[in-house]
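Folding Query — how this chain folds
Tokens — whole-number codes for backbone shape
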Amino acid sequence: MFEYADRADAKPSERKDFLWAEVRARMERADASARFSAARGLFVAYNSGGTGFRRVANFLWMHLAAPFEILFSRADCVFVRTTPPMMQISYVFWGWVFGRKTAVWLMDYHPVFGERTAKEGSLMRKIWGVFSWFDRFAVGKTRLFVCLDDAMRELVEKRFKGAKTLISPTFPAAECDFFDLAKKTPSGPIKFLYSGNLGEAHPTENFEILLKKLSARTRTHLSYCGRMEHSRARLEALAARAGAEFEAHAFIKNYSDMGKFYAENAFDYGVVILDEKFKGVVSPSKFSGYSSFGLPILYLGPRGTNASLLCGKFGAGVEAADAAEIDACVEKLLNPETQPKCAAATKGSVEYFSARAAEGVAAALLRL
């Protein structure tokens, strides 16, 4: 079950939902008798507008269709990806009613996301609280939670006592060309790149403090590569306040071209930011778009996420969980030995964040 799922009869070469395609391919190899069907939205071309007509239509359609999809598919197992929001509530509940095994792959965790973002005491907070109650009641009946990182697993196990969990990070659609992006000489500015949307989950206060401290001691350069004009304007103003240079680049349409783009512009670090209140609710994914091509990261956010794992376990980046850790982070960034070591370490992380992660999900589903 996924809003943008491939048709069940799609040939391997035609499958665009690469996360599920990789899991399904491994299940088919392990058990030739496995059969698949798909519950999809009315509109299956990706649309990022959360309140646009197509997204709202998909949301209503998939919630209302849940009991009929489960009943008429006669599936042994219902595997739910959490798009549109809160799909796990409908599909796990009706799966339980009809005696089907269910598993949930949390891409992000609504309604917890809504509870944490709504103002304390507001009507929206109360509404999200009602949905949260339904989630606690229904989703605890699932057989398996596939979580993106340790933080999400911690949240699930706290929310549902005795929950069976599995960690499987998201992964790129294809193998990436690895580049040697180690800084060969310590001369020149320290160059950061931020790509993607700079939304509510990405506060910039600590990043601005860090850039100010760095700019006071060395040349610092910030680049933006993305489609969002408001993100570009916000980062440009931030760089000006921090005394850093700024440059905007055109959006890179082809994912496979990212490594060449990083190399040509001699970036030192890709920037990943996450607000503490979103720990366990979402998992920042931009890190893989950097590290898969050999670019280390600067991560400003809570521990337990995959971005933090990249820095801590693999040594492929520099991190600061809060303002108290920024000074130590600055010293690491100023050390000319840090960037080459981090760039070299990205290679060790590639396999962990590769499509091989699909093997664990496939095996767990076949064991249900």
In short: Residues 53-73 form the longest helix (21 residues). The CA atoms of residues 147 and 358 lie 12 Å apart.
